[in-house]
Design goal:
Two copies of one chain form a homodimer. Helices cover 42% and strands 13% of the residues of chain A.
């Protein structure tokens, strides 16, 4: 295989890139070698050499403990459980949360053969038993697998003396009733608030 | 900027990748460091170090003259003029053509300020005057700019003793009349063939 074909093949392994878009990306890179290709190679090498998984929460980090876990200004009494790092980033972008995280590494799924021991559940229970922790927020996706995992985690966390909460369901901000699925609408009505 | 943020920024410069898909790609890379990230870095470095522009046709090449230009089995009497390298690759994938190429580097466009001197037109006329060349196929996109460029090139090539042809317009294979634009349908009827 020629170097070009190999690069196209490697690039098309990335999610969201098929062989056509990988070809376009390669041509674009080569047209802008100095401004696109070389900085990209540098950035990838730097990340490959320096980024590791935080030993506490499972976030990506430049050191053994990530910036969030080592930030003294963050609320150490709350742990937000997310499915993967992308969800952690989404929470951080929203600015809605100032506590710590716990990346579960997936959700339970009989279909995909994901068992409790495949997820960081044991580590979560250990952290929940720490004296500092008062609340665990289960911020999992509102899918069947997410709901099953929330159910399982709630049971696992019962012995620990922590409040276990989950995200509210309801109307998305900017959402229109007419386009909303029935399940969400029912949840929004049930959780309606006065005033 | 952190190494991760920088990588996401560099990746999202590629066509077809926004910041969301760049984030997903980075997470995927880091999850599969050995099978996705490291091979991709290697492939990019190899291409960056070894790939250059063919001095004859403008194709990408591992040497000064590309594999097509140096392939003795190809028909040296025909030159196919394409807008860019992606079009050359599309022609090669189709297997419809066994001659040489000439990458123009774009099409004339008053709107984008692309003038004849910005394209490899002088080089094309030089090649057309070579004793070997019998036919120039203008395989440009069927756009307004493509048509204007074909018109201009035809005039430039008039003094050279070569046949100047262009791609046929018509019904795409597998295409349905009902979904076809009028221009294509008119072209297909005009160019109808007996038998």
């Amino acid at each position: 295989m020629s170097p070009l074909e190999n690069l196209i093949k490697q690039l098309s392994k990335l999610p969201g890139l098929g062989s056509r878009s990988a070809r376009r990306a390669v041509l674009h890179m080569l047209k802008k070698k100095d401004t696109v290709m070389m900085p990209l190679i540098d950035a990838m090498s730097t990340v490959a050499d320096n980024i590791q998984i935080c030993s506490l929460c499972g976030n990506l980090s430049e050191s053994q403990v990530c910036g969030i876990c080592s930030d003294e200004r963050r609320d150490r009494s709350t742990i937000c459980v997310v499915e993967d790092i992308a969800d952690l980033w989404a929470m951080e972008r929203s600015g809605a949360y100032r506590g710590l995280y716990h990346v579960l590494g997936g959700t339970l799924s009989a279909l995909d053969g994901v068992q409790p021991e495949d997820l960081k559940i044991e580590e979560l229970v250990l952290r929940a038993n720490s004296i500092d922790v008062k609340e665990i927020i289960l911020a999992l996706n509102a899918t069947v697998e997410g709901a099953a995992t929330i159910h399982y985690l709630t049971e696992c966390l019962e012995p620990a003396s922590v409040v276990v909460s989950k995200l509210a369901h309801g109307l998305p901000v900017g959402g229109e009733l007419d386009y909303l699925d029935d399940g969400t609408l029912i949840a929004a009505v049930k959780a309606r608030r006065v005033g």
